[in-house]
Amino acid sequence: MKQRVKHILQVLTGDDLFIIGQCMPQVQWKFVQIGLLVGLVCVLCLGSAMIAFHGMFQSYSVAIPLALFFAATIANLYVLLLYTLSRNSFEDRSTTKAKKFSRIVRLSFIGFIAILVSKPLESGLMRAELQPLIENLKQKELIEFEQKSRQQANTRITELRNLQLLDTESPFTSSRNYTLEIEQIEAEVKKGILGMEASIGQAPFFIQGIRVMVNELPGTWILTLICLCLFLGPAWIKNHVSENPDFFDKKRRIEEQLVIEDYQIFHQRYAAMYRTHFGRDLKYPELYHDPPFNQHRKVPDLQHRTEKDLISELYNL
Prior knowledge:
This protein is mainly alpha-helical and 317 residues long. The protein has 3 domains: 2-128 and 217-245, no CATH class; 135-207; 258-315, no CATH class. The chain contains 11 helices and no strands. The chain is elongated.
């Protein structure tokens, strides 16, 4: 059972299990630590997605499949980013600035994922403190709607009363019932306010609640920082492990051997293709001194000839 749990945790790291198994116990324990943190990150992604989608849709039948899909996507993306942060086994001709910029971009993306995951979790943990603030926001929205509705209604009512006054002073009689129209406008305003009150009362205000939490509860940023450290922890441990000669040397030797073996198979298939289809014994031309890694290109040995030689060859002189 212990070995099975260890195997599962090492799978979560995203690195090659065969290479990890060839390393010393201390290095293998580092990968177990990485797996523990990655597993915790996956659980947080699922919990955060459940809180977010249930908060938005108020339905577990909708929230559960969406949360599973979202959590699986984020977790796989996170593991992929962790793998790219491992030290490259082969020679890399990129400049130091390019390497640093690339690493900063990937770490920043991990940080963005951490913040994205942490906010729904914080809203769930701080629900008792957040709920009164959401209720205040709902009341504010309702008051603003009521004021705008009454302002628009008063404008229409004023226009109707002015028309009523003009009709009264006019020698011509009008069949228009201004009093009934004013009562209808007032009834529409009351109905609209009641409808808005019911809608706002039922609305979850999930996204607005997170905005309120960020502005009104600055202490939640401590939880964000903890979540950020948790997401970046595996990257820090993996960087430390990548510098370990025991792991890095074994990884480079095994990966180089795999590449060389595949390249030899390619050479055999290339030669067999020409023998089968064209009846010629040809080898794949090597343009580099260190195939198949191709870091040092061969300099062609060119023989420069004179113009006289070109004319002689053109005219068969």
